[in-house]
Fold this sequence. Notes:
Layout lengths: L2 H17 L4 H14 L5 E5 L2 E7 L5 E7 L7 H16 L6 H13 L5 H18 L4 H23 L4 H21 L6 H8 L6 H12 L3 H32 L14 H14 L9 H24 L2 H23 L4 H7 L6 H13 L2 H42 L1
Antiparallel strand pairs: 1-2, 2-3
Amino acid sequence: MDYDVLLEGCCEAGLQLLRLGAEIHRAEDTVRRLLAAYGLEGEVFAIPNCLIVSVAGPDGKVHTRMRRVPMSSIDVDGIERFNALSRRLCADPPADPGQLLTQCLRERDAIRPFPLWARLFGYCYGAFFFTLFFSGGLAEALVGALAGLTAGVCVSVMGRLRANFFISTMVSAFALAAAAWLPPALGLAVNIDSAVAGAIMVLVPGLAFTNFMSDLLTGDIIAGLSTFVRAVLTAVAIALGTGAAVLLCRTLWTVAEHGGQTVDYPAPLYCLFALIACLGFCPAYNVRTWAAVLCGLGGALGWGVYLAAQALAGNVFLSSLMAAVAVAVYAQAMARVRKCPATSYLVISMFPLVPGLTIYQAMDYGIRGETDLFWDTFFRTFGIAGCLAIGLLIVSTAVAAIHHWRTRRTGHG
């Protein structure tokens, strides 16, 4: 057997999973299972931008491959495709290890993102309903939709220019805030805070921040710190971009920032807004078919549990924990039904819960020099992210323990 060719195929599978946004442990486990299918026990180490695989042949010679992982956004359809491919390959490994690489490359080329118009519509659509979710009125939602669309155009343009993520996020945030300020500058009564709060959700790294806590709690220190740094830099870029736009607009125009209205909707409507807003993120994350609706239902479920826990306990951290457990259980159930990773549902369903907005607010307070508000929001963000991560870990650990128990029981049987 050509171990170098086999390693190349295994590395390609792990690399694509990391590139598409899969968890570190999923990529490592996939590579180990592929090697085990050929009767080999390898060493696998992964961080968000690097994958190292090593295996020893029968002659004792050690074969090693190291691949750099290009930075990319989460692609749920791609993750599901490679998860299904790895299942097929592990169940029936090709006699020629070269076919492993060939099939991985074929699957990579088969991934098709949504067209640009659909992604831009998703930015607009998601921002509109998240503005309603943050208690904005119709006027605020329309302004939020305009700002979200503007941010989406900037993200697409900066992507084509291959700008680094920090500059791309900062420019997009500047354009988003400027677009939100334009209607009030023309004399329309709009609550800018609500409009920006809804639109900013298309840029915030809330899920990455929660993943960072999850990585640290599971012992992936390097991966966790790497994700944390990226999340914080993204939040700083958002704060710098919006801060610059606000400063410029305040200099040019005198606008009543807190005009317009704030609406206190009934609890069922907030859940409906969460469901519909989550659908807006599906094109950007390449979530297809009925999976999109199921993701939206998960978002509504999570927010419903959060509101119920708030009514009973009145504690934001306990409410976040209970909502995360509910979403995680739902994601695990859907994963079993559709034979796909639970990540497919967590990515979208967690959006109403993740503290993305408060990350931006904390950084914005820091830049403005409001120290007390900065530290209060900063620790609140950490607390919520930690509770969400713990909730997800409780469920994933329980599922893994049940699976291990059933495997041992079947083996002994």
